Every structure is written in structure tokens, then in C-alpha cells.
Amino acid sequence: MGYLKSILFCVFVAFGGFLFGYDIGVISGCLVMPDFINRFGEPTGPNGEMVLSATRQSLITSLLSVGTTIGALAQAFTADSLGRRASIAFWAGIFTIGVAIQISTTYSLGQIVFGRFFAGLGVGAMSAIVPLYNGEAAPKKIRGALLALYQFQIMSGLFISYCIDLGTSNIANSASWRIPVGIQMLWGLILILALFILPESPRHLLGLHREDEARRSIAILNNVPIDDILVHETIDELREAIREENEGGKATWIECFSHRNKLYWRTINGMMLQFVQQLNGQNFYYYYGDTFFKSANLNMSAYVIQVILGGVSVVATIPGMYVVEKWGRRTSLLVGALWQAACAIIAGLVGHYTLAPVGTPPDQLTARNIAGGDVLIAFAIIHVFAFNMFWGPVPWVYLGESFPLRVRPKAIALGSATNWVWNFLLGYFSPTIADEIGPLITMVFFGMLIYGTVYVYFFVPETKGLSLEEVDEMYRSGVKPWNSAKFKPHDRHLHAKEHGDLNKPVEFVPETEEGSLGQGSGEKKDSAREETTYVENA
């Protein structure tokens, strides 16, 4: 019960991911709706029939990502100036305005595109603020799972958007696309409530020297009295960490790439994981699955296939929240990359060599064509399942727990912006590439997944079970990533008594030569002035 409030608050904040997922999914359905095509397409088809060209599809889809890139960077200023809580409400308002711009148009492609860009500002900002807030508010023992909630919410939004698209796809007028797009205003309004419900990040408050408010926030998040020993311990730990971080003066963007505390390494890792995440291949299925799966010549509606993909995505994130804490971040990424790479190469080669040309009449399909289509869909689904169990949540977990307070908003912004830059490039160029090489586009994703496997092994350390301050210590220690799971931080926390026991004086537990004393052990051992304690097998 001690973590209940933290969990509820983090779930609420992670709803920002719902906006992200819903907006990705809803547009893929709109692109094949007859009324949407008639309003925003071009008369280039047979007998002047309206067609939504690959160029226009790319423009409508990818302009959201331009806005999200800018929003992800801009939130770094509002997160510090307005605070985490008010910043969430501010960007939720921007998103809501963008949705209103989209649904108020009649035939203006420019208005649709601008509305998606404006809504993208809010979506991009949320993609950075959510891991920022949850990383600072969540207890370290369950921080990975709570940060992974962001991916669960993304996939929930995606699934709901597919279901609503399916439900409105047979409406003959503009309600077919106005309803699924317009309902996003409700999602934005829900997040605006954050201003009145959420406690502010205690790390942010203490950084502003508002200690009394920070104490109240810690007490609320951990569901303990304000005079509980946990509150005192956390304040002392944060105060010391903030003092160390602020010795260098005001943080700048350049500092994210400085050698101080290996910040350059952490920032590049955060950006690289987001880069590989986008080129996993899953977003191609989400954005253009309706169109791409038609090449498999299935009797099943493309909308139904998307609903299946969405449902699989939501289900996969549930064991993902367990695995990220049980296996750790590195193992999850390595297993996921190899699993998805196998799916990508099978889907690409089978699709290329067995599928019939697009437009082949159903009665002319051979058994080989039909079997090839089934295999393509099956491995696309398995690929999506693996992504949402591993590479969907873990890069966001890593982003939320890898940076010190002084540069955290900026470093997370750089990681989120990287995600959106590649989201834009994928969204803009994928239709053209798929038109040229068909299912072989998955070979591009295969290559990126192999690259991701190598990168994670050599450059990404394990951060499971460490507080944000202990992550700093690990990077300073110089431990090799492949040995980082053995890292043992100094125990600099207060463990003199159980929560709520204030009768005894509070004591610091001395550091030891042999590493951590364990969580809350209360034992005392001889102190040693080592920078870190690192245990490695000979």
C-alpha cells in the first residue's frame, strides 16, 4: 500500500502516452476512409477518381512528427520554469487546440496538416515530460515498471484508435474521420486536470529550495506521514545530490555532451536507443499497415488486422513491465533486438518471394501466395509483440532514469526529439520505399536491429535497482557495460530505523569496502573512502 499513490499518480501522468499512441493509430485508419480521401486527395485516379497519393499521405502523417520534435525540445524550458505539473497541463492544452484545428476543416489539406503539427507540439512535449516526472516521482524498486507504463498507455491509445476507426469506417460522411480525430480533445482535457491532481516532483521542488513543499510531495507519493523517516532520508539524499550537481553553475544544452559524470555517454545512449527504437519496424506497421497488408491479399479487412495488431501490442506490454524489472534493461534490449530481427528477415523474404503482385484478383491467387500472406501477417504480429515487450518500453525507462537533476529535462528532451526526428523520416519516406521494394523494406529494419544488438552490448549499462543518484555513481565508476550488472553502489542512505520510527536519532550508515549493505539493513560496517565499490569476477 505504501506505493499505491505513487503508482496511481504515475499511471495518470503516463496517460500522455495514450495521446501519442492514439494519434499514431487514428491517422492510419483515416488515410483509407472514402470521405477523407475525397476531401484531401487529388483527382488522379481512373475517370477523375480522388486518390490520396503517397506524397500526401506522407505529408499528413509526418507533419505531426515535426511538431513533436519541436515540442520535445521546448518542454525542457517549461519543465523548469513552470514545473513538471503545470508543464503537463500547458502542453495538454496545446494538443487540444491542435485537434480542434483539424476537425474544423472541410476541404483544406493545409489546415489538416497545420492542425497535426500544432497537436504534435503537445504530443512531443508529453513524450519527454512523462518519463521525466515518472522517473523523479516513482520509488526506485518499481521505477522501471512505472516508466514502462508509458509504453502500455501508448499501445492502449493505439488499440482504442483502431477500434474507433473500425467502428466509424462505414459512415458515409465526414463523421467517419471527425469522430475518431475529434475525440482526442477529451484526452487532452483529462491531462489538463493534472494541474489540480498531481503533486509536484520533489526533486524539482528541492532544486528550487522549496523544502517544505518537497517534504509534502514525498509524503504524498509514498503514502507516509510528513515526519516519516523515509521523508527525512529522501530529502537528505536529494539535497546532497543537488548540491553536487549545482557546483558547476547553471546547466546548458552543451553540458549534456560534457565529460562531467560521463554525461556525453548517457545522452548519446538515450538518443541512440530512441533512434533504434524508431527503426525497429513496428511503426511502419502502425502507420501504413492498412495499406501494406493489402499486398497480402487477405480476405480479412485491413481495419481488423490493425485491431489485432493493437490488441497484441497492449497485451505484450503487460509482461514487459515485469520483464524490465526481472531481467533488467540490458537483457531485455538484447533479447528483444534478436527476436525482432528474426521476425523482420522472415517477413521480408517470405513476402518478397511468395506474395502476388498488388491488385491480383482473389480468384487468381495460388496456394503459395495465400500461404505467403499468412506468414507475412503472422511474423508482423510476432514482431509487434516482441517490440512492445522489450524495445517499446525499455528505451523510455532508460531515458527516465539516466540523468542528474541539473540536466535531466534537457537530456530527456534530446532523447525524445531524436525519437520524433526519426519518426518523421520513417513516416515521410516509408510509403515511397515500400512502393519500390515492397516487403523487402523489413530488411532495413533487420539491419537496424542487428546494429542495436551490438550497440547495447558494448555501450548501454544496467540501471535496474539503482536510485537516480546511484546511477550517477555507476557512470563515474567507469564500469564496463557488460559488467555493469555486478556494480554495487556505496550505501549513502539512512537506514537507522523502520519507517515511522522517530524515537531514535537518525544516523548515516558508513560506507564499506565490500559494497552495499542492502536495502534498509541497518547494519554498520567499517567505512572506506572509495569512489565506488565494484565487484567483478576474476
UniProtKB/TrEMBL annotation:
GO molecular function, one term: carbohydrate:proton symporter activity
Primary location class: membrane
Name used for this protein in its record: General substrate transporter
One Pfam family recorded for the sequence: Sugar_tr
The keyword Chloroplast appears for this protein: no
Chain segments annotated as transmembrane: 7-34, 88-107, 113-133, 145-167, 179-198, 300-324, 333-355, 375-399, 411-431, 437-460
Keywords on record: Membrane, Transmembrane, Transmembrane helix, Transport
Membrane topology: Multi-pass membrane protein
CDD domains in alphabetical order: MFS_HXT (cd17356)
Bias kind Basic and acidic residues: ranges: 522-532
Keyword DNA damage appears in the UniProt entry: no
Subcellular location: Membrane
Organism: Dacryopinax primogenitus (strain DJM 731) (Brown rot fungus)
Catalytic activity of the protein: myo-inositol(out) + H(+)(out) = myo-inositol(in) + H(+)(in)
Cross-referenced InterPro entries: MFS_dom, MFS_sugar_transport-like, MFS_Sugar_Transporters, MFS_trans_sf, Sugar/inositol_transpt, Sugar_transporter_CS
SUPFAM superfamilies, A to Z: MFS general substrate transporter
Domain of life: Eukaryota
